[in-house]
Amino acid sequence: MKRLSAIVTVLMLTASLCYGVAVRPKGTTRFQTLSAQKAPLPSAELDNEFNNAITAINGLSLNQNASEWYDYVQPATYVSSTQFTVIGDHLTEFLATRRVKADITGSSVYSEIVSATYSSGPNTTTVTIADAVLQTPIIKIYYSVVKPVLQNGSVSAKMATGYPVSTSATASTIAVRDATGKLPGSITGDAVTLGGYSPNVNATANTIVLRNTSGQIVGEIVGAASTLNGYVQNTGTTASTIPVRDGSGKLPGDITGKASLPTSFRGALVYNPSGATAGAIIAWTAESYDTDNIHAPNAGTLVVPAGATKVRLSFRHDNIASYLILYKNGSAAVYPGYVIGYADAAGIVNPTASPVLPVAGGDTFELHPPGAENTGTSAGGYSWFAMEIIE
C-alpha cells in the first residue's frame, strides 16, 4: 500500500494530460488528503511520494499527435530516384515493405522499401524503394514506426499485385497480362484447349489449327502431311511449278513452267527498209520497240540477247519480185526451222513467221534477197522485221 497512492496519482494525472487537463502543482490536494485517510502512511511521506510523481510527469514531453515516423538522424545520400545509401549496417531498420518518407526540396515523398543490402567495404546500406520519387538532395529520411508483418524480404501487395507468375494456382487456366504487365485475370478451359488459346487443339498428327479473329482455336484441318487437304504451302515439291489456289484457299493444282519464265514481253520490231542489192542484207532505219538492244540503228541484223534460249522471227516486205531468206548467223545454210518468204504477183511478201527456234545468246538473224535480185525501199512501215523472245 505504500506506493498505491503514488501509482494512482500517476495514472490519474496521465489521464488528465491525455484529455488536455493541466497537471496540478506540488502541494496538498484533495486527492492527497483522501488518500492519506485510506492509506496508513504518514502525511509527510505521502506528500513526498506525490511530489516525486508530479516531478516525473512534469518532466515528460507528451504530444497528443505523436508522429508515425521514426526520424533517421544520419544523412542519406541520393543514388537514383529509387535508391539511397546511409552509413553503417541498418538492415534492421530498413526492412522490406516498411514505409519510408523522404524530405526533398519543397516537399515530402512517400514509398515503401523493396530491399536493403549492406556492403562492409564502404560500410554502407543501400535501400531500394518501390516508387521513383527521390530527388537530390535528400534532406531527411524517416521510416515507419510500424514494422512490416513479414520481415523476410517479401514484397507488399502494392508492389506485387498483378505481377506474379500467375493470378492463382487454379488448374487449367492461362494468365492474362494487361498492357502494364499485370495479371488481372485468366482464361479458363480444360487442360487441352484452354478456351482455344492453347498452341494446338490436340496432338493429332497431320492437322492445321484454325484460329478465329480473337485468336481462339476453333477447329482444325485434317489431311496427309504432304497436302493437309489442300491448304499446305505447295501441292508438292515438283520443280518449276507455281501453286494455284481455288476460292477456298486450297491448292488443287499448279502451273508448270520454269522459274526463268519472263515476267513481261521482250523483243524488237524494226521497219522502213533501205534498198538492198542482190544477196545483201536488208537494212532497217527505224525501230518501233527494242527491249534488249536487239537491233543496232540503220543495221539489218537482229541479235539474240544473252540468256535467251527460244525466239520467234517474223517479217513482211512489199517491194521484191521473188522471195526473202531468213539467214541465221550470216549463213543461208538450212537450220531447224529454216524460213523463206515468197512474194505474190504484186511483189509483196505477206507476213511470214518462223516456228519457235532454239537459240543461244549472240545468234544473229537477217533478211536477204536471192543472189540474182535487188530489193527496193519501202517507207511507212509496210515492210518490217521482228524478233520475239519466248524464253
Mean pLDDT: 74
Count the helices. How many?
A: 4
Distance between the termini: 125 Å
CATH architecture of the largest domain: Sandwich
| Strand arrangement, major sheet | 1-7-4-5-6-3-2
Give the strand content. 25-35%
Classify the fold: give the CATH topology of the largest domain. Answer: Jelly Rolls
Strand count, sense and barrel status of the largest sheet are: 7 strands, antiparallel
So what's the CATH class of the largest domain? Mainly Beta
* Domain module count: 4
Portion of residues within helices? 10-25%
What's the β-strand tally?
A: 23
How would you describe the shape?
A: rod-shaped
Structural class: mainly beta
Structural description of this entry:
The chain has 391 residues and is mainly beta. It folds into four domains: 4-58, no CATH class; 69-157, Immunoglobulin-like, CATH 2.60.40; 207-256, no CATH class; 267-389, Sandwich (Jelly Rolls), CATH 2.60.120. The protein is 11% helix and 31% strand. The protein contains four helices and 23 strands. The strands form six sheets. The chain has a seven-stranded antiparallel beta sheet, with no helix packed on it. Strands 14, 15, 17, 20, 21 and 23 form a six-stranded antiparallel beta sheet that branches. α1 (4-18) packs parallel to α3 (43-58). The longest helix has 16 residues, at 43-58. It is rod-shaped and about 165 Å long. 18% of the residues are buried.
